[in-house]
Amino acid sequence: MNIVSTIADVKAFMQSQKKTGKTVGFVPTMGALHQGHMSLVQSCKKDNDITALSIYVNPTQFGPQEDLGSYFRPIKEDTQMAASYGVDLLFLPTDETMYGRHASTYVVEKSLSKVLCGKFRPGHFDGVTTIVLKLLNILNPDRLYLGLKDAQQYRIIEKMAEDLFLPVQVKGVPIIREDDGLACSSRNGYLNPSERAIAPTLFKALQAAQEIFKAGQTDTSALIQIAKDVISKQSEFSIQYLELLEWESFTMRPRANKKSLLALACFLGKTRLIDNTILLP
Ligand code: AMP
Q1: Is 34 assigned a catalytic role?
Q2: Which secondary-structure segment (H or E) carries 202?
Q3: Is 133 near ligand 1, meaning CB less than 6 Å away?
Q4: 126 alpha carbon, distance to own chain's centre
Q5: Distance between CA atoms of residues 145 and 125, nearest Å
Q6: What's the pLDDT tens digit per position in 206-224?
Q7: What spacing in Å lies between the alpha carbon of 146 and ligand 1's midpoint?
Q8: Which of 38, 39, 149, 177 to mutate to test the pocket of ligand 1 (most atoms within 8 A of CB)?
Q9: Which of 87, 163, 246, 249 fits a 20 to 30 Å CA distance from 11?
Q10: Which residues are registered as beta bridge partners of 171?
Q11: Between the CA of residue 134 and those of 7, 28, 97, 139, 140, what are the distances in Å?
C-alpha cells in the first residue's frame, strides 16, 4: 500500500496507474475505520483495478460545539486495516494541504442540504461538498464510494456531481450493522456500556416502520409515529429529528408511495447517532 500526504504524490501515483488504463475507485473517510468503511473498500475493489482511500477529519464540516477535537484518530490501526483490506493508495492530507493559502471558495448545495441533519448542523454539508470536491479534483477517480448510512450526504454529493457535471460515477453502499442492529459508526465508541446496550433501539424503530410499510401502511404520520413509539420507550433517547421524506426531492409527502427515506438523529447521552432506512413501494 502506498501512503502519501501531498497532492503531488497522489497525482504521480494516479498518473502512473491511469497510463496503463487502470480504473480507480475512491473511498473518502474520516478514519477510525470499521466494517462500514471496509464494505465501501470491498465494493470499490470489486468494480475497479485500483482502490484509493483518504483519511481526513475535515474541520469545516464540524460546528463550533461539535466533536472535532475529540474525534478518534487511531492512525496506526487505520493504516493496518486499510492495508489488510487491499487498499492501494492511502491519502492522509493535512489541513495545510486542504485549506492552506487562506482558501475562501466553498461549494454550497442549496436544497437537499437544508433539511434533516442540515437543519441542526448549519454549514455541515457545505464542508462536506467542499472537501469531497477538493478530494475528487486531486484524485480524479472513475468512481466514488459513499455509505447509505449517511443517506443525506450521499444524495447531496450525487446531486453535486450531477449539477456540476463531475466526471465521476457516485456509488451508494448499503448500511453495515453490528450483530444487534446498531449501524457501525466511529461515534459508537463514545457510548458507555449501558448506552451501547440500548443503542440498537434505533434500528428496531426503523424496522417497526418497515414492517407496517410492508404490510401496506403508507401514511407518513403513522410510519413516523410507530418509530417514535419504539424510541420513546427508552427515556435515555432524545430525538433530534425523525422524518420521512421522498427520496429524490427530500420533501415531505402525506403518503410514502414513492421511494422514501425514513431518517433519524437521536442523542443518547452526549452522543448523537443517525440511522435510516429506505422505504421502497
Ligand atoms: P466517515 O468516516 O464517518 O466520514 O464515513 C466515511 C464513509 O463511510 C461515508 O461514505 C459513510 O457513509 C460510510 N459509512 C460509515 N459508516 C457506515 C456504515 N455503517 N455502513 C456503510 N457505510 C458507512
Answers
A1: no
A2: helix 201-214
A3: no
A4: 14
A5: 17
A6: 999 999 999 999 999 999 9
A7: 7
A8: 149
A9: 163
A10: 145
A11: 11, 11, 10, 9, 10
